[in-house]
Each structure stands twice: as structure tokens, then as C-alpha cells.
Design a protein that fits this description.
7 helices; globular
Length: 189
């Protein structure tokens, strides 16, 4: 059961990395440092003063940059691979009682995959907003994405299984909406 919870926690935090790369590890580290969450020993590096300082600085810079139209789109080119790497490392750090081959395979597929999916959806949304509004609505999307990262991280820390279920349902709903949109565009175009 502990392994399942650690996988769900890793996947939930990884998905949140797709919204903002540095917010989930920062909040997980803060929660561990203040005793609100118990992380496995392999993830306690997140609670170190140096990690918290670096993650806090990076999170503030990342959040601020996303409020600048057109800079936000450029940042996506760096954020996409970075989110996958962060999601993979977070998940690998959190999985306990698994062989290295299983741990890293799960981390890459589930953690990296969750981060990549979320990051792809946010990038597509921001690109659509840039085209439709010449970037004027992008700061609103940046605020929503930051709130989503904080909310998804909090849910993952408090209820990892629920966070994973919400992630799966959100992906399924998004895929369904995208398919419906493609069908509608094909019939009207």
C-alpha cells in the first residue's frame, strides 16, 4: 500500500509540474520541512534549506515570467522538457520498496508522462490564447495555471490517490473535448 501511495504522490506532483515546474517540489519541501507531510528519506532533500532557497527563487522567477505575454510562449520550450525531468525525478524520489528498474520505469512513464501531458495541454491553451487575443489574455491563463499547480500539489500531498483519480478524469475529459472539437471543426470547415 505504501508503494501505491508513493506512486500516486509522485504522479500527482508530476502532473502539477506541468503547470509550474518548481512549485510542486517547493511546496512538497516546505510541507516536509514544517512537519505537515512525511516524505520518504529519498525525497527529504526537498526539505533542505538550500533546496528550498533554490526552488523558491526558481518558482518566483518562473511564475513572474509566465505573466509576460510572448515570454510565456518562449518559456514553454524550456518548461516542457524541464517538467518531464522534474516529474521523473520527483516520482523516482518518492517511490519506495521497488527495484531501481521498476522505480525508474514508473518514474519515467507515470511521472514524466503526467508532467508531459499537463505541460502539453497548458502550452496548447496558451498558444490558442496568444492567437485569439494577441497575448492579452495570457496573464489570466498564467494566474489560473499557477493556482492549478498549487491546488494539484496540495491535493497530491493531502490525498495522493484522489489526486491521481482527478488527473485521470481530467485527461479523459480533455481528450473527449478535443475529439469533439475536432469533429465539430471538420464538419463546419
Amino acid at each position: 500500500m505504501e508503494t501505491l501511495l508513493s506512486i500516486c504522490l509522485g504522479v500527482g506532483l508530476s502532473a502539477a509540474c506541468g503547470f509550474r515546474v518548481f512549485v510542486p517540489p517547493l511546496l512538497a519541501g516546505l510541507a516536509a520541512a514544517t512537519g505537515h507531510v512525511s516524505l520518504p528519506e529519498s525525497a527529504m532533500w526537498l526539505a533542505s534549506p538550500l533546496a528550498l532557497t533554490l526552488l523558491g527563487t526558481a518558482a518566483l522567477l518562473e511564475i513572474g515570467a509566465y505573466f509576460l505575454p510572448f515570454i510565456d510562449n518562449a518559456l514553454d520550450t524550456v518548461a516542457a522538457p524541464t517538467a518531464v525531468i522534474a516529474g521523473t525525478l520527483l516520482t523516482a524520489s518518492l517511490i519506495v520498496d521497488a527495484s531501481p528498474a521498476v522505480r525508474w520505469s514508473l518514474a519515467l512513464i507515470a511521472g514524466g508522462g503526467a508532467a508531459a501531458t499537463t505541460q502539453t495541454l497548458t502550452s496548447l491553451t496558451r498558444a490558442g490564447s496568444t492567437v485569439a487575443t494577441a497575448g492579452l489574455a495570457n496573464p489570466a491563463f498564467a494566474g489560473i495555471e499557477t493556482a492549478a499547480s498549487i491546488g494539484a500539489t496540495t491535493l497530491a500531498l493531502l490525498a495522493p490517490v484522489a489526486a491521481t483519480v482527478v488527473l485521470i478524469l481530467t485527461i479523459a475529459l480533455t481528450v473527449r473535448l478535443l475529439r469533439r472539437s475536432r469533429v465539430r471543426n471538420a464538419t463546419t470547415g
